[in-house]
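STRUCTURE:
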């Protein structure tokens, strides 16, 4: 069986790689490390199909040490022990390079097994992961490694890669051609994933070579092969939380265009419930008392979206996102509850003022008998001065009025009345 096109044209040197110029360009730090002759422990972090594995293989192969390869999805503790057992061999006396793909799939015990040998230099680790290593890699290993972040490859560089791939395919079918715009479309729709682009091109080429007459990769075929492929999304991975974070920060920053963009990416991936929950949080956290009706409107939009389902759910959710992005902002209540809970976690605020307790019997040792609660509705403006906070928090102010019309109106109403003690 022929290897996939992406493997057949895998770069054999750093100069042949596309993308990652910030790391592998002429002045890139990773390139200079690879050329230094001294190889430290490295972790490559980034989305799939952007060159992590290729770069690791090239750098490891040039290290001048015996090279081992393990994949975290299939490696067992026995595989790791077998590698360690080989460290005493003659050809491993100078140490070995372990290329460990998908390190996040090794459990903590397996990662700890490697630690001693990484620390004494018997093993030089080059690992790759699609997940944030600061969450998935054992801290002791992480502290002994340098993390380099790989990024999605620009469409222009992907198109250049596809041109080279097309030349490779022409070795099999010399007459194979691509319509104008076909390769550019695949490059634009692959989401910066070079492997995905190569797979789409190979599918198109197979279809073209199976037709009668001159084989041509058409733009229409490219559109079908690359449809929805630009989406990078994992409901349990970093991309999920990055999208939700981008949605909230865009709304907080009052940018409705960015808000509907990130909402659209979530919905295009088929995720309905996550943006519904996040929009409700945003209404309370970021808009809050500046427009207190926002949460009721957003709740109505969310209820409508859940009842409608996709694709129609996008309509009320877009209304909610734009409403929140263009609404006045206040995080005053959010900051108030955070400050209050911080004091509670520190052990402050034990007990209650007697006037706030439920009516119950006063024991003999209680000096001030009776609850002595003052009912605010019995007083002018429905307010009377009395202690509400626990004794050790008297005078603490958690809530600060926001600088918006609604909260300033409340401030204008209450401040003069509370001064009339």
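SEQUENCE:
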């Amino acid at each position: 069986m022929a290897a996939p096109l992406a493997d057949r044209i895998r770069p054999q040197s750093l100069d042949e790689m596309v993308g990652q110029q910030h790391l592998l360009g002429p002045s890139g730090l990773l390139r200079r490390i690879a050329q230094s002759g001294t190889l430290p422990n490295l972790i490559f972090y980034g989305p799939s199909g952007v060159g992590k594995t290729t770069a690791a293989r090239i750098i490891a192969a040039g290290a001048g040490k015996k090279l081992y390869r393990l994949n975290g999805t299939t490696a067992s503790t026995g595989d790791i022990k077998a590698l360690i057992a080989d460290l005493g061999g003659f050809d491993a006396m100078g140490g070995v390079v372990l290329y460990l793909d998908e390190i996040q799939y090794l459990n903590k015990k397996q990662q700890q097994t490697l630690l001693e040998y990484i620390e004494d230099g018997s093993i030089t680790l080059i690992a790759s992961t699609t997940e944030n290593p600061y969450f998935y890699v054992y801290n002791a290993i992480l502290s002994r490694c340098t993390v380099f972040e790989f990024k999605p490859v620009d469409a222009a560089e992907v198109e250049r890669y596809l041109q080279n791939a097309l030349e490779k395919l022409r070795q099999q079918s010399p007459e194979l051609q691509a319509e104008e715009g076909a390769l550019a479309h695949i490059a634009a729709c692959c989401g910066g994933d070079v492997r995905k682009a190569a797979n789409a091109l190979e599918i198109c080429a197979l279809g073209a070579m199976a037709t009668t007459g001159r084989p041509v990769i058409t733009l229409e075929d490219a559109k079908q092969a690359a449809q929805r492929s630009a989406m990078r999304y994992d409901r349990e991975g970093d991309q999920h939380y990055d999208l939700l974070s981008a949605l909230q920060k865009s709304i907080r920053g009052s940018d409705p265009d960015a808000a509907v963009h990130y909402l659209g990416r979530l919905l295009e991936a088929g995720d309905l419930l996550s943006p519904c929950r996040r929009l409700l949080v945003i209404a309370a956290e970021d808009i809050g008392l500046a427009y207190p009706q926002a949460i009721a409107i957003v709740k109505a939009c969310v209820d409508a979206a859940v009842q409608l389902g996709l694709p129609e759910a996008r309509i009320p959710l877009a209304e909610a996102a734009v409403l929140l992005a263009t609404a006045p902002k206040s995080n005053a209540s959010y900051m108030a509850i955070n400050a209050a809970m911080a004091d509670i976690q520190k052990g402050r605020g034990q007990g209650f003022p007697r006037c706030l307790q439920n009516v119950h019997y006063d024991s003999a040792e209680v000096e001030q008998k009776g609850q002595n609660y003052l009912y605010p509705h019995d007083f002018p403006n429905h307010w009377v001065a009395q202690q509400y906070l626990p004794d050790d928090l008297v005078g603490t102010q958690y809530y600060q009025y926001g600088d918006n019309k609604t909260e300033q109106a409340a401030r204008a109403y209450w401040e003069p009345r509370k001064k009339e003690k």
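REMARK: Residues 155-170 form the longest helix (16 residues).
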